[in-house]
Amino acid sequence: MWKVLLFLFIYCALFGSSFYAYKQLRSQPVVADAGRLLPVAVKSIEKADGEETLRRIVEKANETGDKLTIAGMQHSQGGQTYYPEAVMIDMKSYNKIIEFDPGEKTITVQSGATWDDIQRHINPYGLAVKVMQSQNIFTIGGSLSVNVHGRDIRNDSLIDTIESFRLLTPRGEILNVSRQEHADLFPYIVGGYGLFGVILDVTLHLTDDELYERKTSMMDYSEYSSYFEKEVKGNPAVKMHLARISVAPETFLREMYVTDYIYADNQNELSKYNDLKEERIVALPKFLLGLSRYSDWGKNLFWDVQKKYMGNESSTYETRNNVMRSDTNFMNYESSTRTEVLQEYFVPVDDFLGYVDDLRSVLEKEEGFNLLNITIRYVEKSDHAVLSYAKEDMFALVLLINQEKSENGIKHSEAVIQKMIDVTLNHNGSYYLPYYLYPSKEQLAEAYPRISEFFEKKKEYDSDERFTNYFYEEYK
């Protein structure tokens, strides 16, 4: 009889503990970033509702041994903002404007503020941001952590517009970091993917808002490098620039249009145009983008419509602030079986022609690789960040790719993307790090020759590896 009772006792204990573990697992929040390819359960999500709250989160993690990750809008796509069983700090509510000096053209904001928050605050004063992404939906802390660049061709990467920032360290201390104070940390944290602590607030240099005349031209890809050098870079009146190259089968990686934003003669009319634009009706571009996802004729149609629309928009006027408020809603995409991922490749201006030829050779052989768009920007050489992507003056090609979420879909994308990165590296280029972890460790080391130094500094500064993410755990 006692054996039966003992068995029942052990069974109940095991059942109770497994049920408790199951409940704990079920109660843990599951998170994913914009790529939706790495959904995982984190221990908890802690909202950053103040500096003291953030301090307590770090202090508690040091007591419990928990790992910490930092999240903003989570548009990085390779798990750079979370990790399994880690405590994820949600920075979005930590978004106040702290100080604004229109005379000095500086602004200090908490790191959860977005570029939209800044634009709305400074636009009435005739000021604008120097460097940011083409869209204004991202947080400042996240933008700093990936060292963004944008359409402006007269300013470098974001790092060159930062005056200073405050950092909550893995030990719970608060440091002011600039080129004068704790200067050894500055080039690691900017472009450091949240691995050195929590960026609390940032002081940025601003510039004057300006009125631009938009000019759009069509050309063959073989003309682009020389056009850019003479008509864009060589013309100081051109302030911002972007281009798109066709992914439509009929003109694949051959036909282009370029858009230049030229300092307008009628600056006295700035006030006529300086109301901040909001998202426009997105039904038509959303419909056309949808068609291009599923058919070659849809891609051809979308490209033809883009060319016509951009041609009609030529010789119109737009303020600097509004150029930096590109529509995003039409790109929203929901599917249970597919997702859309980004890649960004940097290639020297002089290598563009040969690079596109080699890229085309690779992609024309890849059946089922669904490339939707390539946008091209210019990035001036900048080696101020340890993980700098612009080793010389570069064109940045941003690729939008529609792919399956399945294991086979991921493997297929990985294989093609590694081939594209090999082409990029063969042309002395590099690739951007905020995206899915498709590149190999060897490709990372070639694209970022200081990556070992970066990881060594991380380990030295955060010996307990309190702050982590998928990127760090995959490549360290």
Automatic annotation (TrEMBL):
Organism domain of life: Bacteria
Limits of the FAD-binding PCMH-type domain: 37-209
Gene3D superfamilies, A to Z: 3.30.465.10
Matches recorded under InterPro entries: FAD-bd_PCMH, FAD-bd_PCMH-like_sf, FAD-bd_PCMH_sub2, FAD-linked_Oxase-like_C, FAD_lactone_oxidase-like, Oxid_FAD_bind_N
Record bears the keyword NADP: no
Oxidoreductase found in the keyword field: yes
GO MF annotations in UniProt: FAD binding; oxidoreductase activity, acting on the CH-OH group of donors, oxygen as acceptor
Identification of the protein by name: FAD-binding protein
